[in-house]
Specification:
By secondary structure, the chain is an alpha/beta fold. The chain contains nine helices and eight strands. The chain is globular. Keywords: Hydrolase.
């Protein structure tokens, strides 16, 4: 992805396009490249913003879902964004939810969750991360997608590099445990803004029933299930994902105007 990474104080982020900010939060093994197709499409309509979440840079006590939510709050506050459309995949969705619940006054117009944790998540397994075993990491990475070919060598190499860094493994485990502990079931009814839920029918990490439960618990929500799609719809079926998201954002605009 050949986009400029901007720096403002402790924040590093991509910002492309003009219009109402569309802020994208990546997951535990996510990267800026996860949103390539989404960014290329929506920069025509929105100011698309991808903060680089400090998964490995916070001290161990702040390496939690709440710690990342605090970071997102400071980021949006510092950049002075208004009328924000917030989108999170996997752990990024969980972070978005905690941020919104802690800051109901935040300038957020809409929320989009795709494969979000916060209710239930199948982790990488009891033996994960398994250092030094490239084939094991490749197979685990493939489970993210319906089509295993989506787990490119570049993506597997990235995950392999993370799990072979001892400090990063400790941070990954801390975040995963924090996500499991921080179940939001009882609080989700407090989220009143328009919410879009996009789930892969073949998501084995946060299965479709998780999306259905989010839909039941979040009052002003709509759920879209995509066939032949896993845990990262914006990567695996970007065309369909972008059409769904664009239609949702247009409906939000009409509700407000």
């Amino acid at each position: 992805m050949d986009y400029e990474i901007k720096t403002l104080g402790k924040f590093k982020y991509i910002e492309e396009g003009e219009g109402e900010p569309l802020v994208l939060l990546h997951g535990l093994f996510g990267a800026l490249s996860n949103f390539r197709d989404l960014l290329d499409y929506f920069r025509q309509y929105n100011k698309v913003v991808i903060p680089m979440l400090p998964l490995f840079d916070l001290n161990i006590l702040e390496t939690t879902v709440g710690g990342l939510a605090k970071y997102v709050h400071k980021f949006i506050e510092t950049l002075g964004y208004q009328k924000v459309h917030l989108l999170g995949n996997s752990l990024g969705g969980h972070v978005a939810l905690v941020y919104l619940l802690k800051h109901p006054e935040a300038p957020i117009r809409s929320l989009t969750l795709t494969g979000s944790s916060g209710l239930f998540e199948n982790g990488m397994g009891e033996t994960y991360p398994k250092r030094g075993d490239y084939e094991y990491i490749r197979k685990k990475t493939e489970l993210t997608f319906h089509d295993p070919a989506m787990a490119t060598q570049e993506l597997v190499d990235e995950v392999f590099g993370i799990v072979n860094n001892r400090l990063q493994v400790i941070k990954i485990i801390a975040l995963a445990k924090s996500a499991i502990r921080h179940n939001l079931g009882e609080e989700l009814s407090d989220i009143k803004i328009p919410t879009l839920l996009v789930w892969g029918q073949n998501d084995t990490i946060t299965p479709p029933m998780v999306g259905e439960e989010f839909h039941r618990l979040i009052p002003n929500s709509e759920l879209h299930l995509i066939d032949k799609c896993g845990h990262a719809p914006m990567m695996e079926v970007p065309g369909e994902f972008n059409v769904i998201l664009h239609g949702f954002l247009e409906r939000v605009e009409k509700q407000v105007s």
